[in-house]
Amino acid sequence: SSTAFTTSSLLLNVSLRSTVLVNFVACQLFALLMAVWFRIYLHPSKTSPFIRHVVATLLGVAMFILHFHQKSAQNLCWYCFIVTLGYLILCQITRVYVFDYGMYSADFTGPMMVITQKITSMAFEIHDGKMEGQLTPSQKYLAISRMPSLLEYLSYNCNFMGILAGPTCSYNDYMAFMEGTSYQRRHQEKANGKENGKAKQAEPSPKRAVVSKLCTCAISLTTYLSLYRLLPVDYAIDEHFVNTTPFYLQVVYLYLAMLALRPKYYFVWTLADAINNAAGFGFNGYDADGSPRWDLISNLRILDIEFATSFKLFLDNWNMQTAQWLKRVCYERCPVNPTAATFLLSAMWHGVYPGYYLTFVTGIGMTMAARAVRHNIRPYFLVSDSHKRVYDVITWASTQVAICYTVVPFVLLAVGPSLKFYSSWYFCLHLLCLLVVLVLPVKSRRRQARAKEDAAQDEQRDHSSTDNNCNRKDKST
C-alpha cells in the first residue's frame, strides 16, 4: 500500500508539474501575441500613454489571475525595502512550509519576486531624485524626478509583458517606452555612425530579435525536456554512485547534470525578453556594424555563461537584471562588507529553503577566492597569447566546477542532501577557498577605488601646486 501511495504521489507530482508548465507557456504565448498587438495598434503615435498604461495593467492583472487562479521621505526607501522584502519572505514561508515543500506548483511568489525588485528599485530611484549630489552616473540616470501617478505605478509593476517572469527594468526606461521616447533617446546615445542617415528617423523593427529569441526558446525547452530526467542532480548523492564511481567521473556527471538543468532558465528568461521586444520594449541602440540591439532588459547571455572564465563573469551574465537590482539597492549602498550583504540579500529574495543560504554562503567564499587568484596569479599568464589561452582553459574548467559545486544546495533545497553532497566531496572546494583567501589576500574593490581616487586627487594637487608655482614665477618675472 505504501508503494502504491508513493507511486500515486509521484504521478500526481508529475501531473502538477506538466499542468503548471503548460499553463505558464500558454499564458506567455498569449502575452507574446498581445505584445505584437500592443506595438502595432497601441503605438505611441496612435494612442496616448494613458491608454497604454491602462491596457498594459489590465492585461497584466488578467494574466496573473488566469495563471494563479488556483492560489490566488529620505529613509522612506529603506522602510519600503524592509516591508516589501519582509512581505515576500512571509509569503515564501507560507508557500514552502504550509502548501508544498519541495514541489513546484502555481508559485504565486514568482511574480511577487519581480514586483519586489520593481517596488524597491523605484523607492531608491525616487530617493535619488531628491538628492542633489553624491550620486553615481548610473544613479543620476535612473533617478526619478517626478512622483509617479497611481496608474503609472500599477502599469510599471503589473503590466502584462512582465507580470509572470519579468524581467525587471528601471522606471525611467519603462516610461520612455510607454511615452514613445525610448527610440529617440537611444538613437542619440548609441547610433554608432547612423545618426546622420535615415536610420535615425526610422523606428527599428524587433521582428528579427523576436524570431531569434523564440528559436532559442524552442532549442532550450527541447534540450531541457530531453535531458533533465536522464541527468538528475540528486543522483550525484546516490550512495551506490558515490561509492562505485571514480571522483573525476563524479565531477563530469555533475557538470553534465547542471548543463542539462540550465536550459530551463534559458527558456523562461528568453521568452520573457521576446515578449517585451515584441511590444517594442528593449531597444538599446546599435552595434558597431549598425544593427539594432534589443538587449536593454535581457536577463542572460548564454554563450558568455557557458564559456565564462571566472566566477564573476558567470554571475555577471546570469540573471542580469536581478544582479543589477542587487548592485543598485545593496552593493552600492551597503557601508560594511557589501559582497557578503549582497549574497545574503540574494538568498533572502530567492526564498526560505536552507539550500539557498548554503549556496550563497558558499558563493561568498568562491567570489573572494576567485578575486584573489585573479589579482595574484593572472598577471603571470599575460606575458604571451599562448600563456593567456592556457590560463583561459584552466579558469574555464575551474569556473564550471566551482559553479556546479556551489549551486547543488540551490537545487537540492534541503540541508541533509546538501551536506551529504559536500561530504562526498570532503568539502574540498570550501577548504581550498579558505586556503586561497588566507594565502593570497587582496584588497576589496572599494579600497581599490578609494586608492585610485586618492591617487587621482594627489596627482591633481601636484598639478595644481605646479601650476601655482609656474604662475608665481611668471608674475615675478
TrEMBL record:
Membrane topology: Multi-pass membrane protein
Keywords linked to the UniProt accession: Acyltransferase, Endoplasmic reticulum, Membrane, Transferase, Transmembrane, Transmembrane helix
Residues covered by region (Disordered): 450-477
GO-annotated biological processes: lipid modification
Location in or out of the cell: Endoplasmic reticulum membrane
GO cellular component terms, semicolon-separated: endoplasmic reticulum membrane
Pfam families per the UniProt record, alphabetical: MBOAT
The protein's name in its UniProt record: Membrane bound O-acyltransferase domain containing 2
Organism placement in taxonomy: Eukaryota, Metazoa, Chordata, Craniata, Vertebrata
